[in-house]
Amino acid sequence: MRLAAVAAAACVVAAPCTAQQPAHSPVPPKHNTYVVVHGAWGGGWDWRAVDSLLARDGHHVQRVTLTGLGERHHLASPNIGLYTHIDDVVNTILWENLHDVVLVGHSYGGMVITGVADRVPDRIKRLVYVDALLPDSGESVVQMQSADTGRGNFLAQLRRGDYLVPVWVQDTTVIPRDVPQSTRTFTDPLRLVNPARKNVAATYILTYEPQINPDPFQRYADRAAARGWPVLKMVSDHVVERSHRAELVKLLEGIP
User: Fold this and answer.
1) What is the spatial distance between Cα 140 and Cα 187, in angstroms, rounded to a whole number?
2) What one-character DSSP code corresponds to residue 30?
3) Of 91, 94, 114, whose CA–CA distance to 188 is shortest?
């Protein structure tokens, strides 16, 4: 029997009785559904600790590993492109029947979540770009990065055949580790066709190190601000999911 019913019964048996009501009813915490999209060369494994911190607070977290990366590295192929990765996330949302999603994209993941919002805007409550690329329609990763100061040879520096391989990606590194990524995911332009995507709320989180100026992602934060989005800043290196997990989770939970 519920306590309120017990109190009411006591009033009837032992009248007169004044039922005591709490001064205020506690507001239940808001629990969100987060879908997290990792950055280039990474995998869902890289966000396991952030997942645990969010889940501890009662949130539901879905970490998507993009095709050809992480534990799906065995599916690597030169034919994997940006739209393969967009399909990965869209299908996760649809097959898991997720709604009111807080869709988080880190770094390269910003390209992916932008494409997802173009496909299923009705399933997304908010986009969160974490030190991420923020593309306009028609832009590719290579085009955006090559426009940055000192990155004119971005593709040539990293290309190894059909893959882009930064210097820290080594077969001798202990698993889990970053792995080569198909060049097509960096060269495919993102085409945005659904006006409804503009109705999805969005927030940009810029991580920065005071000694690095200019910050390589500042221009994307500026682009977000020009769109009227909230821009939050925190001191961290780029791999914030590893170095400043608790601070990032606090920001994520504080976003409306």
Assistant:
1) 6
2) P
3) 114
Give the span between the Cα atoms of 239 and 47, in whole angstroms. Answer: 10
What does pTM read for this prediction? 0.87
Q: Which residues contact 33 (CB under 8 A, 6 or more apart)?
A: 59, 60, 61, 62, 98, 99, 100, 101, 102
Q: What is the DSSP letter of 78?
A: T
As given in the structure block, the two tokens for residue 73 are 């590295």
How far is it, in rounded angstroms, from Cα 71 to Cα 100?
A: 27
Residue 190 near residue 119 (C-beta atoms within 8 A): no
What is the mean pLDDT, run by run of 10 residues, along the chain of 256 residues? 38 36 50 98 98 98 98 98 98 98 98 98 98 98 78 77 95 96 98 98 97 94 98 98 98 93
Burial 180-209 (b: 16+ CB within 10 A, else e): bbbbbbbebebebeeeebeebebbbbbbbe
201, 176 in Cβ contact below 8 A?
A: no
Judge whether 107 counts as a catalytic residue: yes
H helix or E strand, kind and range, residue 156: helix 154-158
Give the Cα separation of 224 and 243 in Å (integer).
24
Sheet of 163-164, strand order: 159-160, 163-164, 181-182
Candidate list 77, 107, 182, 243, residue with the active-site label: 107
CA distances (Å), 157 to each of 10, 74, 109, in order? Answer: 79, 25, 21
